[in-house]
What we know:
By secondary structure, this protein is an alpha+beta fold. It is built from nine helices and four strands; from the N terminus they run E-H-E-H-E-E-H-H-H-H-H-H-H.
Amino acid sequence: MKLFLHGYRYSVYTRIARLALAEKGVAYAQVEVNPFAPDCPAEYLGLHPFRRVPTLVHDGFVLYETGAIARYVDRAFPGPALQPNTPAGLARMDQIIGVVDSYGYWPMVRQVFVHDVFRPRLGGDVDIAERDRGLEAAGRVLDALEALISDQAWLAGPEVSLADLHLGAMAAYFTLSPRGTASLGARPRLAAWWQRFGRRPSLAATDPGLPDSTPPDSGPSDAGPSDAGPSDRDRSSAPLTEP
Ligand SMILES: N[C@@H](CCC(=O)N[C@@H](CS)C(=O)NCC(=O)O)C(=O)O
């Protein structure tokens, strides 16, 4: 069996796919590709016409879109089921994933994490107003999730599901911001969930870390794809890009 996950180290969506593979205990090879890089290989565009990551290739079967990848991984491999087995449980999981992807990713990751953690670390342009707009929008998303999530251990029921993986990958970045931690911590059910999910071995196993910090004058720092030169840890994914 040949299983490859093409993805970008700091990508949230790549991490969701990696979380699904880790929860199932599936071995795979990672292929590092930065979709934002001008020299993104033409072969990769042959796999993913929209130039996003991740893409899974399983014995020649090519699959992009994280939701499809995670469901495929759950169905194709043995290991604990990552989807509830009731219509209502499945619907709730799908609804939470929809909310997180459609309304949560941008404010939690691209506005709060990027402007409160990632760019400050790399010496990139920080927009405080953008961060604060993100905090406000993320608050609305977290309020909605606080009302939606199950009163059992995990977001969609008694077992970990794909909903936990989608929100978990984003919460991992969001809570690197002290403001993000405070926002999530102010929602008691989500805070209790994060206490549990934050201890999952799969989360530690897929942690991309943060890029080494770069002095502000060491490279271009516009809002575009290439904010800084590669560090030792990032040579394979140069130029360094936001998640
Ligand atoms: N709908 C896609 C979204 C994936 C996505 O947006 N990935 C980001 C990285 S987290 C990406 O590839 N961005 C490249 C770009 O925006 O040009 C999925 O579910 O896989």
